């Protein structure tokens, strides 16, 4: 191997593959000619070593626990920015000037309603339906009300599509919440900012005057910022993969919502609270559940622990843990689940099994505690994650289309039956 290429010796021949440079972090071996030259393909289950794209949106350093949006460290963004600004930054690559910010907000406000017929679709879901299933279906249904395909060669069209998606998606998230609770649904209020507007659409009671609680709005804003993008994770890769077939934005995002729903991905925030409740109901014996998680004959895993990329700590978890403490204090809430979470964290972080495998609490370990303190039903937690992740999905979809990435189509190493002749039914 030299600095800028890798040499592969195979079948008595030598092949060279160039190394693609990065600004920071992993460099990649360009193996696009590998199969043509050698007849071999690579096999990398779960894509643990495979770069699927070139990207300039988000960078994370899993060994050192660092996360950057467009080069800005997440700690600075979480402290100083707000979710609307972060959406702009992810979508456009730079922090907005005051004029750009106003115009972005105006663009979102233009679409701050959802066609009334969509309510009929919402109505037919039973209240018992999981909000993520409802959200994914409603997002897909938006296509029917906005049938025109985005012209990716027009910056104006791309901007409008992003602003429309951002505006309407907050309604769909709020509507799934209202549906779950059996409350009448609302449209947006353009006098409020994005997070306030979402908060009002969710929490306004039909029989009371509405007040914005700045503590809750601030907490929501921070949570949404922390979830806004995370490079090529499962749901984002899904959005890019579906979009690579030139499928529209709404349908691609709808697929991303389904991917996010899984308990190994965004669904972990719901699973964490369910696990903490289970431990509490079972007498609060934290050590017993740590042992279960270590037992290879037991399917139980400590939800909210471990991450494919972070092998040190999840920087978002550090910020959220502090936010959870602040919010519970500010709202005067004592939560037994938080006590159990703290014990679990202590025991696991000292245990050889977790230490040697570099398993640390991830973002979902604490986010559920905040959502619970805000009175959000457990099944809604992953919807909150989806609202946060939306700007990441749109930015990555847009990048994929602007780079003109080819359709995603992995290969396989086939290990099934050899070629054989069909056997008639009577002869089987
Ligand atoms: N509890 C117990 N053991 C675990 C856990 C866990 N939460 N996570 C990983 N391990 C163990 C595995 O059993 C494996 O052990 P082994 O080497 O003895 O076989 C080793 O740690 C490596 O685990 P993998 O599953 O190979 O790691 P991978 O990178 O594929 O998975 C994942 C990462 C899916 C996040 C995993 O850690 C997990 O299931 N965590 C719980 C679910 C969760 O919190 N998901 C949220 C992720 S963050 C997000 O999506 C926002």
Structure characterization notes:
The protein is 52% helix and 6% strand. Helix 9 packs antiparallel against helix 14. With 428 residues, it is mostly helical. The chain contains 18 helices and 6 strands. Acetyl coenzyme *A (ACO) is lined by residues 46, 264-266, 268, 293, 301-308, 357, 359, 362-364. Residues 46, 264-266, 268, 293, 301-308, 357, 359, 362-364 line the site of acetyl coenzyme *A.
Keyword list:
single chain; 428 residues; mainly alpha; 3-stranded antiparallel sheet; 18 helices; 52% helix; binds acetyl coenzyme *A; Citrate synthase; Citrate_synthase_bac-typ; tricarboxylic acid cycle; Citrate_synthase_sf
Based on helices, strands and strand pairing, what is the structural class? mainly alpha
Order of helices and strands: EEEHEEEHHHHHHHHHHHHHHHHH
Bound molecules: acetyl coenzyme *A
Distance between the termini: 55 Å
Instruction: Work out the radius of gyration.
Output: 23 Å
The major β-sheet equals:
3 strands, antiparallel
Tally of separate helices: 18
Oligomer: single chain
Strand arrangement, largest sheet? Answer: 1-2-3
Query: What is the overall pLDDT average?
Result: 94
Annotate the secondary structure layout:
Layout: E1 5-10, E2 13-20, E3 28-29, H1 34-38, E4 58-61, E5 66-69, E6 72-73, H2 74-80, H3 83-92, H4 98-110, H5 117-123, H6 131-145, H7 155-181, H8 194-203, H9 214-226, H10 234-243, H11 249-261, H12 268-281, H13 286-294, H14 315-331, H15 336-350, H16 352-356, H17 363-373, H18 381-402
Antiparallel strand pairs: 1-2, 2-3, 4-5, 5-6
Helix pairs in contact: 3-18, 4-7, 6-7, 6-11, 7-8, 7-18, 9-14, 9-18, 10-11, 10-18, 11-18, 12-15, 12-17, 14-17
The protein binds acetyl coenzyme *A (ACO).
């Amino acid at each position: 191997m030299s600095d800028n290429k890798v040499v592969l010796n195979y079948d008595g021949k030598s092949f060279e593959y160039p190394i693609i440079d990065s600004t920071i972090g992993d460099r990649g071996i360009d193996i696009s000619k590998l199969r043509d030259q050698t007849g071999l393909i690579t096999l990398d289950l779960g894509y643990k070593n495979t770069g699927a794209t070139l990207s300039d949106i988000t960078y994370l350093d899993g060994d050192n626990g660092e996360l950057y949006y467009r080069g800005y460290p997440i700690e600075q963004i979480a402290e100083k920015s707000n979710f609307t600004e972060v959406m702009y930054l992810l979508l456009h690559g730079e922090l907005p000037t005051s004029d750009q910010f106003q115009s972005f907000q105006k663009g979102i406000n233009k679409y701050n309603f959802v066609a009334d017929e969509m309510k009929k679709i919402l109505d037919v879901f039973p209240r018992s339906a999981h909000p993520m299933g409802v959200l994914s279906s409603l997002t897909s249904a938006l296509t029917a009300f906005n049938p025109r395909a985005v012209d990716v060669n027009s910056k104006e069209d791309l901007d409008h599509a992003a602003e429309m998606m951002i505006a309407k998606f907050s309604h769909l998230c709020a509507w799934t919440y209202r549906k779950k609770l059996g409350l009448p649904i609302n449209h947006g209020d353009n006098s409020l900012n994005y997070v306030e507007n979402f908060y009002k659409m969710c929490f306004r009671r039909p029989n009371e005057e509405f007040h914005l609680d700045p503590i809750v709005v601030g907490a929501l804003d921070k949570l949404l910022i922390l979830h806004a993008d995370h490079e090529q994770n499962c749901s984002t890769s899904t959005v890019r993969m579906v979009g690579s077939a030139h499928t529209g934005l709404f349908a691609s995002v709808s697929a991303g919502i389904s991917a996010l729903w899984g308990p190994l991905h965004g669904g972990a925030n719901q699973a964490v609270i369910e696990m903490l409740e289970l431990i509490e109901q079972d007498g609060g014996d934290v050590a017993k559940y740590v042992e279960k998680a270590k037992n290879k004959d037991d399917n139980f895993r400590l939800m909210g622990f471990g991450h494919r990329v972070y092998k040190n700590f999840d920087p978002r978890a550090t910020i959220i843990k502090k936010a959870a403490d602040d919010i519970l204090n500010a709202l005067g809430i004592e939560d037994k689940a938080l006590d159990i979470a703290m014990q679990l964290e202590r025991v696991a972080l000292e245990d050889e099994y977790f230490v040697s495998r570099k398993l640390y609490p991830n973002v979902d370990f604490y986010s559920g505690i905040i959502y619970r303190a805000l009175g959000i039903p457990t099944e809604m937690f992953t919807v909150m994650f989806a609202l946060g992740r939306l700007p990441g999905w749109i930015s990555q979809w847009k990048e994929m289309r602007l780079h003109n990435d080819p359709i995603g189509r992995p290969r396989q190493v086939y290990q099934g039956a050899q070629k054989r002749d069909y056997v008639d039914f009577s002869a089987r």
